[in-house]
């Protein structure tokens, strides 16, 4: 039998245990509350940080977009067909294109001061963008040679873009006598909600196509049929020879075989036929390679185009008025074929036709502009061109034996380059904060 004292001791132990367990539950509850508070505060901190990161990213992106917008505005203002009141003219027209210190700005004085080298009073053209919340300024300079590319021991010479060594490749060089386009260094500074960004491009104009005659041919031409080639400028500029070639005149082996009526090849030389021999070669392949990058229409070539395919010849190429005095066209495009091409139906267009191979004209062909063929030309159809033709003829002479009417027109071959967007050579981001 249990004694009363034992029962009392047991009751005391049970009560003590319960009191101890109650204290443990309180401690554990407090710990859970502390953990929940820590998790909650951490979530608040993380959310706040994420919001700040998102806001900073948004501001940085807006600043980047503003800087990029400034550069694109500069490129737009440098196009020749931009309104004269806002256009930034090519220094070759209004400045010394060899002046290493030439510069101009777009924007406001305050923003422009963020661009290195700006001083109050420097030439600045107010920004014309229509988005008041976009803040940017732009600096435009002549790019300079800081690596002594020509090895003459002189740096900071103005850089130009072109084939300076005759190897067919375009490169940076410092020879102003080559008359190649300047390279411009355009820096755009953008600002948005305390964030800043800076973007820089090297840009240049597309290299103009040198025109030496109504027809330039590298290795000779056989002119037969009803061929008329006239180098006298029907558009009011300076006259050119009817035909020009880097080949030499040899009585026994005439590189230019004239038609039955040699007087149908006329021009500034004054001979009959009017041919200028021993001219400096034109890098036809290089011209095709450089201009194809700006093509509005590109086709694979290597076939026959009848004008029934889509896309195909005449698809948005423009409609020239070749009978007008002078001839005109409201469209000017660059059309590129990547290999040999043959036209068998009536084709018309305006601008630059580039063929990276041989060109065969077996149908009607009406063109306002320049035709550049990195191979030979075979014209046996009804052909009417107002502008000029350049051929490389690597393996075969040009066969021009159809009803061909080719007349030089300076307005069809000049002026289009400055109207095209400037080519981007390099792009880099300089600053992001």
Explain the layout of strands and helices.
Elements: H1 4-77, H2 91-94, E1 103-106, H3 109-112, E2 124-125, E3 135-142, E4 144-145, E5 157-158, E6 160-162, E7 171-173, E8 183-192, E9 195-204, E10 215-217, E11 221-223, E12 227-230, E13 243-244, E14 256-257, E15 265-266, E16 275-276, H4 284-291, E17 297-299, E18 303-305, E19 333-337, E20 341-343, E21 347-355, E22 359-361, E23 365-373, E24 377-379, E25 382-391, E26 398-400, E27 403-408, H5 410-413, E28 423-432
Parallel strand pairs: 1-2, 10-13, 10-25, 11-14, 11-26, 12-15, 12-27, 13-16, 17-19, 18-20, 19-21, 20-22, 21-23, 22-24, 23-25, 24-26, 25-27
Antiparallel strand pairs: 1-3, 3-8, 4-5, 6-7, 8-9, 9-28
How does this model look, in words?
A hairpin with a 2-residue loop joins strand 8 (183-192) and strand 9. The chain has helices spanning 4-77, 91-94, 109-112, 284-291, 410-413, and strands spanning 103-106, 124-125, 135-142, 144-145, 157-158, 160-162, 171-173, 183-192, 195-204, 215-217, 221-223, 227-230, 243-244, 256-257, 265-266, 275-276, 297-299, 303-305, 333-337, 341-343, 347-355, 359-361, 365-373, 377-379, 382-391, 398-400, 403-408, 423-432. The chain has 2 domains: 1-143 and 182-208 and 422-433, no CATH class; 215-413, no CATH class. With 433 residues, it is α/β, with parallel strands linked by helices. Strands 10, 12, 13, 15, 16, 17, 19, 21, 23, 25 and 27 form an 11-stranded parallel beta sheet that branches. The radius of gyration is 36 Å and the shape is elongated. It contains 5 helices and 28 strands.
């Amino acid at each position: 039998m249990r004694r009363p004292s034992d029962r009392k001791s047991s009751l005391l132990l049970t009560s003590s245990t319960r009191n101890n367990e109650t204290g443990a539950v309180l401690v554990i509850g407090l710990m859970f509350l502390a953990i929940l508070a820590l998790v909650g505060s951490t979530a608040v901190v993380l959310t706040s940080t994420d919001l700040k990161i998102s806001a900073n990213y948004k501001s940085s992106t807006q600043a980047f977009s503003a800087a990029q917008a400034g550069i694109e505005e500069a490129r737009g203002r440098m196009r020749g067909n931009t309104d004269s009141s806002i256009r930034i003219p090519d220094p070759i027209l209004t400045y010394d294109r060899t002046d290493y210190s030439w510069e101009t700005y777009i924007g406001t004085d305050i923003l422009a001061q963020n661009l290195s080298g700006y001083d109050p009073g420097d030439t600045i053209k107010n920004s014309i963008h229509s988005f008041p919340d976009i803040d940017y300024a732009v600096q435009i300079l002549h790019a300079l040679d800081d690596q002594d590319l020509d090895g003459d021991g002189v740096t900071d010479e103005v850089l130009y873009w072109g084939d300076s060594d005759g190897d067919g490749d375009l490169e940076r060089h410092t020879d102003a006598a080559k008359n190649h386009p300047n390279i411009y260094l355009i820096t755009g500074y953008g600002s948005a909600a305390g964030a800043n960004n800076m973007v820089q491009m090297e840009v240049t104009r597309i290299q103009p196509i040198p025109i030496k005659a109504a027809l330039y041919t590298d290795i000779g031409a056989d002119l037969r049929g009803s061929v008329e080639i006239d180098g006298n400028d029907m558009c009011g500029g300076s006259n050119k020879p009817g035909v020009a070639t880097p080949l030499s005149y040899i009585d026994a082996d005439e590189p230019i075989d004239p038609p039955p009526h040699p007087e149908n090849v006329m021009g500034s030389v004054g001979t009959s036929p009017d041919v200028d021999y021993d001219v400096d070669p034109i890098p036809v392949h290089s011209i095709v390679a450089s201009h194809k990058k700006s093509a509005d229409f590109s086709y694979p070539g290597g076939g026959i185009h009848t004008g029934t395919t889509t896309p195909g010849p005449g698809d948005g190429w423009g409609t020239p008025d070749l009978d007008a005095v002078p001839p005109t066209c409201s469209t000017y495009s660059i059309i590129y074929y990547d290999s040999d091409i043959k036209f068998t139906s009536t084709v018309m267009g305006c601008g630059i036709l580039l063929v990276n191979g041989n060109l065969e004209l077996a149908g009607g062909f009406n063109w306002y502009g320049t035709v550049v063929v990195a191979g030979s030309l075979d014209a046996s159809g009804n052909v009417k061109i107002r502008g000029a033709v350049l051929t490389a003829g690597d393996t075969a002479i040009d066969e021009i034996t159809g009803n061909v009417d080719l007349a030089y027109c300076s307005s069809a071959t000049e002026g289009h380059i400055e109207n095209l967007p400037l080519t981007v050579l390099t792009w880099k981001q300089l600053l992001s904060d």
